[in-house]
Design goal:
By secondary structure, this protein is α/β, with parallel strands linked by helices. It has helices spanning 47-66, 69-85, 87-98, 102-125, 161-174, 190-201, 215-223, 236-248, 271-283, 303-314, 335-350, 390-393, 409-417, 432-441, 474-479; strands spanning 13-14, 17-18, 27-32, 37-43, 133-137, 140-148, 151-155, 178-182, 208-210, 229-233, 252-256, 262-265, 295-299, 355-358, 380-383, 400-406, 421-422, 424-428, 446-449, 464-465, 468-469, 482-490. Helix 9 links the parallel strand 12 and strand 13. The chain binds NADPH dihydro-nicotinamide-adenine-dinucleotide phosphate (NDP). It holds the Pfam family Aldedh.
């Protein structure tokens, strides 16, 4: 089935609607990655239109921040209902923009975004923003309150567009802040739909605004004096620039960055389960997931069996028509990213000289002819890999698994931690105590035992080391969008002063 949706041009969205008059003459295209055909024209936000979006947000802040949390929650819960009622419509937009199969976008992307919005709405409605109070002494007590920050910038990566937009805007708005959001220029389509959902739900004009464009639009937001916080998802190299610029202005930051995460298969393991986990950790979303477990450590004695089961199961990776519910593997998101991933596969074959177990440089077999120009690659597995290979060290962000063998578990743990990144890690094994012992030693902010990839709203997630600063989701995720105020109240009737008369 061919997915054709006609979409009007996109313009900077602020004060509750797209603002055609203020956008620049520069445009760019959103492209269907399965065919490489353009699907929508986006107008880059000029500096003056970004200023207008920030100014609309600033005007909306006093009223939104003083709306009682339970009332804000009611509005956000309405947005959750609208998102769920439009799940398939929004999933088609995400499929068109990202190239992910509809079987994935219709069950994951909008669902996990709406879940997080519901979670934070419920959290603030049920006292999540309450501070604490305590008696300091008989005549004095202290209370604390969680205060919103003001106008916050959300800057998104291209891999989970609407989910990222919701994971940022949900706690931001629930806590009483307002947002100016910049989607990736590679996958910008969801942004206006989300803005319209918020408006329809009753979110006041100016509370959620959208600006479009490439890195310079993000950089303009990051250093703008009226932005109180920057929540960023993207590559480590960009994150360093964004965090540096924000820190110079004392802005709050949350950084959700890249990874090169290890999967450790224990010697005593259900091999079918371990292979299923390793495949989810490498081929889901065509490998374009920040928490990908791309370094798969397997005991030497299990290597042959692991690879045999893996090769059998890889026949169940099914590229094809994105709207076919049996398709579970899409193209890469863009031509630039396709070239990058293919470059790594070439490097793995020609320079690293790892053994190519499956996949490689060809496009997948049996694709319908009309998809021939899309950014398709094969799910790829390299084995006999060593720690110093480039394909083992660098984030590829594509469907490229590297298998490394180990002889002792302590050695595997040291090697797994031997990276500047620390986003995710996981262990597969039958002995649950051993699994906990290994997880305890892994240097990563998100860890899994006998599963891979699930990231529910209740679970705070964020990277260690160069993979990020702060967390999203869970109770701790709300703390990232408030600042503390402590108040000491003296009831003794006299100010304790050193300037009393002698
Ligand atoms: P990029 O770092 O290239 O871009 C992320 C966003 O930052 C985009 O909107 C981009 O704009 C914008 N940007 C670029 N330069 C600047 C700048 N100087 N100042 C402010 N903003 C800027 O990341 P990708 O989009 O390529 O996303 C993939 C990366 O994201 C991977 O490394 C992945 O691991 C990581 N990621 C991390 C997640 C996590 O939770 N830890 C989740 C998802 C992805 P534009 O692209 O429009 O030019």
């Amino acid at each position: 089935m061919v997915l054709t949706i006609s979409l009007p041009d996109r313009h900077t969205f602020y004060a509750g609607k797209p603002q055609k008059s203020s956008t620049s003459s520069e445009t760019f295209q959103s492209v269907d990655p399965s065919t490489s055909k353009p699907v929508c024209t986006i107008h880059t936000s000029s500096p003056s239109s970004i200023d207008s979006a920030i100014s609309a947000a600033k005007s909306a802040f006093p009223s939104w921040s003083s709306t009682p949390p339970v009332e804000r929650a009611r509005i956000l819960q309405k947005a959750v209902s609208i998102l769920r009622s439009r799940n398939d419509e929004l999933a088609k937009i995400e499929t068109l923009d990202t190239g992910k199969p509809f079987s994935e976008t219709s069950t994951v992307d909008i669902v996990t975004g709406a879940d997080v919005l519901e979670y934070f709405a419920n959290l603030v409605a049920s006292g999540g923003l309450n501070g604490e109070s305590f008696r300091l002494r008989d005549s004095a007590w202290v209370y604390t309150s969680k205060e919103p920050l003001g106008v916050c910038a959300g800057i998104g990566a291209w891999n989970y567009p609407i989910q990222i937009a919701l994971w940022k805007s949900a706690p931001c708005l629930a806590a009483g802040n307002v947002m100016v959001y910049k989607p990736s220029e590679v996958t910008p389509l969801h942004a206006q739909f989300l803005a319209q959902v918020y408006t329809e739900a009753g979110v006041p004009d100016g509370v959620f605004n959208v600006v479009y464009g490439a890195g310079e639009v993000g950089a303009y937001l990051t250093k703008h004096p009226d932005i109180a916080k920057v929540s960023f998802t993207g590559q480590v190299s960009t994150g360093r620039k964004v965090a540096g610029s924000a820190a110079g202005e004392m802005k709050y930051v949350t950084m959700e960055l890249g990874g090169k995460s290890p999967v450790i298969v224990l010697p005593e393991v259900d091999i079918e389960q371990a292979v299923d986990g390793a495949m989810m950790a490498n081929f889901f979303s065509t490998g374009q997931v920040c928490t990908n477990g791309t370094r798969v450590f397997v005991p030497e004695k299990l290597k042959a069996e692991f690879e045999r089961v893996l090769l059998r199961k890889m026949d169940d990776v099914r590229p094809g028509d994105l709207m076919d519910m049996n398709t579970n593997f899409g193209p890469l998101v863009s031509e630039a990213h396709y070239k990058k991933v293919v470059g790594y596969v070439k490097h793995g074959i020609n320079v690293d000289r790892a053994t190519l177990l499956r996949g490689g440089l060809e496009k997948p077999e049996n694709l319908p002819e009309r998809l021939n120009n899309g950014y398709w690659v094969r799910p790829t597995v390299f084995t006999d890999c060593t720690d110093e290979m480039k394909i083992v060290k660098e984030e590829i962000f594509g469907p490229v698994m590297t298998i490394l063998t180990y002889s002792s578990l302590d050695e595997a743990i040291v090697r797994a931690n031997n990276t500047e990144l620390g986003l995710a890690a996981g262990v597969f094994g039958k002995d649950i105590n051993e699994c906990h012992r290994v997880v305890k030693q892994l240097q990563a902010g998100i860890t899994w035992i006998n599963t891979w990839g699930e990231s529910p709203a209740e679970m705070a997630v964020g990277g260690w080391k160069q993979s990020g600063v702060g967390v999203e989701n869970g109770r701790r995720g709300l703390e990232a969008w408030v600042r503390n105020k402590s108040t000491l109240v003296e009831m003794g009737g006299a100010v304790p002063t050193v300037f009393a008369k002698l």
